[in-house]
Amino acid sequence: MARRERVVRMSVEQPLWRALTAYRLLTMVYAVLIYAFGRDKFERPWVAAGFFAVLVVWTVVTLPKVANAVSCTKRFLGVDLTIALVGILLTPVADVQARYMDGPTLPTIWTAGSVLAFAVKGGWRWAAFASSLVAVANLVGRGTPSRDTLHNVLLVWVASIAIGYIVEVARASERTLARALEIEAATRERERLARDIHDSVLQVLAMVQRRGTALGGEAAELGRMAGEQEVALRTLVSSGLVPTTRTSEDSSLGAVVRTVDDAEYAEYAEGRAGGADDPTDEDRRWDLRTLLAPLAGSAVTLAEPGAPVLLRPAAARELAAAVSAALDNVRKHAGDGARSWILVEDSPDEVIVTVRDDGPGIPEGRLAQAEGEGRLGVALSIRGRLRELGGTAELISVPGQGTEVELKVPRGKAER
């Protein structure tokens, strides 16, 4: 069953909408209290009372409109800003002295919430437009604006533009991050499929090509076609970035990779189909020794600790498959007469599996050449698997002295 990567998107602007909702409620209460404690100084208190009735109803009813960017429409923003501007212009009507004295307007700092809604919704350009209208309304309402009025107007204008610019940068960063996560998930899935293809389809095609060539006749033609398909599939797996120049006769990989018997994985597959790999299943563990035991034989010696080596099912299976791929490389490149040794080491922090052979070793530069030709056994079947587990795969080879592959899988104390 293929594993699916999930890309979780996090909205960087949603907290801004929640903060804006709280700001509008608090500033509405503040404006009403300012009027309640100072209503005696109004020449026309009924004008102020009518405006605050509209302001309270509008603020409460439109709370869902400032819950997110989708519900905050242009029509809502237009009406909201209009109410703020009307409140500013009505201030000298309700309080004649306000034109000559540097007192607060009717909506007071509630007006900034309307401007901030423009900034969060549309960025700094929308914020500049809304704050400019507010500035003009303040200058008109004051008649002869004081120094404090100019200071407050400039402060709202600069602050709203700055917040709008920050919102635009945050949105661009969010899109870039989401795209990077999608690319990473797609790359990981592609590597997983490439490993599965390498361990199954490519190996079978290589075996058919080799056996067909040996049998001759019609079987040789079938082997030739299988070899061509193997070359084409390898090119596809490696994304076609490196042209394939080798011939079918050079593409034989020897025997099919010797994997753990299907019976060993029957329980694992059944458990996985039933959701055993679900992240909520914290207690499920597999003994790595039972997965490596079928790999031992007359030419392969397995040395293991006396106690179970417990890993999560997915980690145990991937590590066993990497060991199997390493042994397959020994059989292909060192011959059937080569001997191999598997050493399993278990510690509280990590599990180390070492695969060593007495073959001729790997010539310098051969791994890079093989990867360039599309032979991804070491790159994907071994290193790719360990990389997904958060581990490492180190390969040490000296010509004439064999090869050693050290596989390390870190795990915390909970893994035990």
TrEMBL record:
Transmembrane helix as UniProt keyword: yes
GO molecular function, one term: protein dimerization activity
UniProt keyword terms in alphabetical order: Kinase, Membrane, Transferase, Transmembrane, Transmembrane helix, Two-component regulatory system
Highest taxon, organism lineage: Bacteria
InterPro entries from the UniProt entry: DUF5931, HATPase_C_sf, HATPase_dom, Sensor_HK_TwoCompSys, Sig_transdc_His_kin_sub3_dim/P
TM segment ranges: 21-38, 44-64, 76-94, 123-141, 153-170
Lineage, broadest ranks: Bacteria, Bacillati, Actinomycetota, Actinomycetes, Kitasatosporales
Protein name: Sensor histidine kinase
Species name: Streptomyces niveus
Ranges for domain Histidine kinase/HSP90-like ATPase: 314-413
Protein's UniProt keywords contain Acetylation: no
Any GO CC annotation of this UniProt entry: membrane
